[in-house]
Fold Endonuclease III.
Amino acid sequence: MGTKIIPVSTTRKRLSKKQRAQEILSRLKLLYPDATCSLNYSTPVQLLVATILSAQCTDERVNKVTPALFGRFPDAASLANADLTELENLVRSTGFYRNKAKNIQAACRMIVNEFNSQVPNQMEQLLKLPGVARKTANVVLGHGYGINAGVTVDTHVTRLSQRLGLTKHTDPIRIELDLIELLPQSDWENWSIRLIYHGRAICKARSPACVACQLAELCPSAGEEG
């Protein structure tokens, strides 16, 4: 089957980039009204650990690993004092397990020793933790504390933001800065979650379903792939 041709829409021609971004956001809210973080966790430290494990791994796989992990080591103190080999074995199937286990333990030791066993709720403090960059910090702040400090940029958000013509950058920090300029702060984190849902359901990396996409008339890339 050949590429489907999507007519060029006048909608995206008459809207500014900011207006287009906010219209995309409105449609994503309608499409995925109940979208939320798909990682399973009970506390901010469990969310932190699950997010570290999700690097280059699916959330589905992480959710298969964390019940046993959190059953054995439910909090920062127990993770800080865990036997590293046991910790590695528990997270092995998420990939890069040695580095992930080392970072999780080092982060939890810092949380215990420097933050009174509580995951910090400020970006600059979170970024001090081993294994934590802005993506992880934004997830923890947004879903663990309800704080929109930035826009989480993962592979789905990167791909869709580029396809939608909202950024030309490839660096996650520059993409985040572009999106921050286009979106209301109150929607920074739910933008990411809903875009991730859309990336999984419709705008897939190799075969975006442009003919079924309710963002197509707003998307300069519609019909170019598939």
In short: The CA atoms of residues 136 and 199 lie 19 Å apart.
